[in-house]
Amino acid sequence: MSMEIEKVIMTGMVFKGEKGNDPKGKPKVKTKAKKKAYITGAHGSGAAKMKADIRKKRANRK
Fold first, then answer.
1. Residue 22 and residue 25: Cα distance in Å, rounded?
2. Which pick of 35, 38, 55, 61 has the fewest CB atoms within 10 Å?
3. pTM score of the predicted model
4. Are 22 and 29 in contact (CB under 8 A)?
5. What pLDDT digit, counting tens, does each position of 17-44 carry?
């Protein structure tokens, strides 16, 4: 036990993040797709469908 403590004092400790967490460089599209589905009312929420209908009506007025 004391050897481990001495080793930590002499060399220090290294804290690393989790392995296998999303590799850098890959684009994240999930949230945009979810947002798109919500805005169009495609996910089944009644409020979202009403909002989508209101947006369509407003767009058609112009």
1. 9
2. 61
3. 0.36
4. no
5. 666 655 566 655 566 666 777 677 776 7
